[in-house]
């Protein structure tokens, strides 16, 4: 497969980095290194109508959140998106994915709520998903004050954030968290077993390595028993019928490709309304490299469009 020249440039930048792999240091060191890398890679921070930082009460204490009101979004009764950032459940914060959140806010003319959920290994599974559920419940309970329509809330996330978003979507189907209108998944992690063929095809040289992904997982789970829990590995859930409509973006040259594709196929087989965007020439994390990769913002626009079409289908 041909690699997008822009993605190849991002890989070349990474190859020139003097920082050691995340797994060769501490989580704190990984967070510092990631901070430097995302500042160099992320796309433009588009102006939005309003941004505010606040906090809500969560099961482990206050959860910092950033709220963007998109340009063109209604002042009241706007659709809303809960965005769960990627970073292997270990790294990432309110700034690391701020470009993506702003793109969604403007493209979907919505309110985007991004939580700084608890990270591993200080807070292992299920802390992150518990925080996500608490933020969703807050969005519904305080919808009027947030200017959103509680009937039109979607969840989105990339990589580990896509994992959390998929889990939250299943929980919404089961009624353990409020209902969701859609799930927008960007190269999601769906099986912590890490046995898919793409782990071999793209083990090294494509950004996220097999060794790094194993380190991320081992920081997140409490024991190997958690790997089989569908709240860690949503691909292993018994059934997916009745799950919210889904947009799934897959990077063709990504160790997570095959499990993401398998999850999309399970959604399709369960009759879930589905839009799959397969970018054969892209690498893991390309949406977080908007400064270099044109497909980053374009994929967010496609996800926002899919959500809009899901919403139209629901209301007609």
Automatic annotation (TrEMBL):
Highest taxon listed in the record's lineage: Bacteria
Known EC number: 3.1.1.-
Annotated catalytic residues: 159
GO molecular function, one term: hydrolase activity
InterPro entries: AB_hydrolase_3 (IPR013094), AB_hydrolase_fold (IPR029058), GDXG_lipolytic_enzyme (IPR050300), Lipase_GDXG_HIS_AS (IPR002168), Lipase_GDXG_put_SER_AS (IPR033140)
Family: Belongs to the 'GDXG' lipolytic enzyme family.
Hydrolase as UniProt keyword: yes
Annotated organism of origin: Aureimonas phyllosphaerae
UniProt KW keywords: Hydrolase
Residue ranges constituting the Alpha/beta hydrolase fold-3 domain according to the UniProt record: 81-287
UniProt protein name: Acetyl esterase
């Amino acid at each position: 497969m041909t690699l997008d020249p822009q993605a190849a440039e991002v890989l070349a930048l990474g190859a020139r980095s003097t920082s050691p792999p995340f797994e060769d240091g501490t989580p704190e060191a990984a967070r510092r290194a990631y901070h430097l890398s995302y500042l160099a890679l992320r796309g433009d921070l588009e102006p939005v109508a309003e941004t505010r930082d606040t906090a809500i009460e969560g099961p482990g204490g206050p959860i910092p959140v950033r709220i963007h009101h998109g340009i063109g979004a209604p002042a009241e009764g706007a659709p809303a998106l809960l965005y769960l950032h990627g970073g292997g459940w270990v790294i990432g914060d309110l700034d690391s994915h701020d470009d993506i959140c702003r793109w969604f806010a403007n493209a979907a003319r919505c309110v985007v709520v991004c939580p700084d959920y608890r990270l591993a290994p200080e807070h292992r599974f299920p802390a992150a998903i518990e925080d996500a559920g608490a933020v969703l419940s807050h969005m519904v309970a305080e919808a009027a004050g947030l200017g959103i329509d509680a009937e039109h809330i979607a969840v989105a996330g990339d990589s580990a954030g896509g994992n959390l978003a998929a889990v939250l979507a299943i929980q919404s189907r089961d009624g353990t968290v409020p209902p969701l209108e859609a799930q927008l998944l960007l190269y999601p992690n769906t099986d912590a077993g890490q046995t898919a063929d793409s782990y071999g095809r793209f083990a090294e040289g494509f950004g996220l390595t097999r060794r790094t992904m194993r380190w991320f997982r081992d920081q997140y789970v409490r024991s190997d028993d958690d790997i089989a829990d569908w709240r860690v590995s949503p691909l292993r859930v018994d059934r997916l019928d009745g799950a919210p409509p889904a947009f799934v973006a897959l990077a063709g040259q990504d160790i997570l490709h095959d499990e993401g594709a398998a999850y999309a196929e399970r959604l399709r087989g369960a009759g879930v309304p589905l839009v799959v965007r397969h970018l054969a020439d892209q690498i893991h994390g390309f949406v977080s490299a908007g400064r270099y990769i044109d497909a980053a913002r374009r994929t967010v626009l496609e996800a926002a469009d899919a959500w809009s079409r899901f919403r139209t289908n629901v209301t007609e």
